Automatic annotation (TrEMBL):
Function in brief: Part of the twin-arginine translocation (Tat) system that transports large folded proteins containing a characteristic twin-arginine motif in their signal peptide across membranes.
Assembly: Forms a complex with TatA.
Taxonomic source organism: Mucilaginibacter rubeus
Bilayer topology annotation: Multi-pass membrane protein
InterPro entries assigned to the protein according to its UniProt record, in alphabetical order: TatC (IPR002033)
Gene: tatC
Gene Ontology biological-process entries: intracellular protein transmembrane transport; protein transport by the Tat complex
Keyword Transmembrane helix among record annotations: yes
Family affiliation: Belongs to the TatC family.
Protein name: Sec-independent protein translocase protein TatC
Length: 289
């Protein structure tokens, strides 16, 4: 092998090692971001575990009590409209524990779920700090406020899920029977899982504008497509509202479906703004050439 080939091979190997080191450096940076986020989640979990008695009786068990805020507001709404069927005087939830260590693991698992929920904003911020250096200046400006809006939408979704979707679903499912010979006795894990799933799932659903923003920037989602499929979205939203509402009354279904309609329309606006910005950039680029 000639000297030039040897030197070229050494240079290529050096570039490969440099790329590998850069890759592992990124992994190391990501690891520390995730470690810090994990520490925050652990801190929140410990705090929740310490105050668990109040959190369990007030927050976790709240939707299973007829004195819950949502049930009281529905009753007041029914009285104001002079309509029957809005008041929920009894939520038929009877919980049991079937495992020896069930209540202990319940406290640990539910504390961890709440800890993760509270730690989501910090986790999003750490992930943003990791991604931000890799973005161009224009991309950074376009993504300004990403963490703020993502967190706001997440907690709006959590609030809507906890105060609207969860209590209405629990009231409906706990009262539903196929036969009077079957008594509803719910395992505590099933109840916790239902509350957590309904609440967190709504928080994730409320990230739709953020998802549409990303897809629109990638050219996958357009406002035209979303407008054309609006009628299908309306049908899906109405089906969801019909399932979770405690009565077949259209007004109650509307209370549930309106925020979901608004969310979809906001996503269309977001996609439209992204498209306008792309067109503007293309025009500026063409003028420059």
């Amino acid at each position: 092998m000639s000297d030039s080939k040897i030197i070229k091979a050494i240079k290529d190997k050096g570039k490969t090692l440099e790329a590998e080191m850069s890759f592992f450096d990124h992994l190391e940076a990501l690891r520390w971001h995730l470690v810090r986020a994990s520490v925050a989640i652990v801190v929140f979990t410990v705090v929740v575990f310490y105050y668990y008695d109040w959190i369990f009786s007030t927050i976790i068990m709240g939707p299973s009590k007829s004195t819950f805020w949502t049930y009281r507001m529905l009753c007041k709404l029914g009285a104001a409209l002079h309509r029957d069927g809005f008041c929920i005087d009894n939520v038929n939830v009877h919980l049991i524990n079937t495992e020896m260590a069930g209540q202990f693991t319940l406290q640990i698992n539910s504390s961890l779920i709440i800890g993760i929920t509270l730690g989501v904003p910090y986790l999003i911020w750490e992930i943003w700090r990791f991604i931000k250096p890799a973005l161009h200046e224009a991309e950074r400006k376009a993504a300004t406020g990403f963490v703020f809006y993502a967190c706001i939408l997440f907690f709006l979704g959590i609030t809507f899920g906890y105060f609207v979707i969860t209590p209405m679903s629990i009231n409906f499912l706990s009262s539903y029977t196929v036969s009077t010979a079957i008594q509803n006795l719910f395992d505590i894990d099933s109840y916790i899982s239902s509350v957590a799933t309904l609440t967190l799932a709504t928080g994730v659903v409320f990230q739709l504008p953020i998802l549409v923003y990303i897809l629109a920037n990638l050219g996958i989602m357009t406002p035209k497509f979303m407008k054309e499929t609006r009628r299908y979205a309306i049908v899906v939203i109405l089906i969801i509202a019909a399932v979770v509402t405690p009565t077949p009354d259209m007004l109650t279904m509307t209370v549930v479906s309106i925020p979901l309609f608004v969310l979809y329309e906001v996503s269309i606006v977001v996609a439209g703004l992204v498209e306008k910005r792309k067109i503007k950039k293309e025009l500026e680029f063409n003028k420059g050439n």
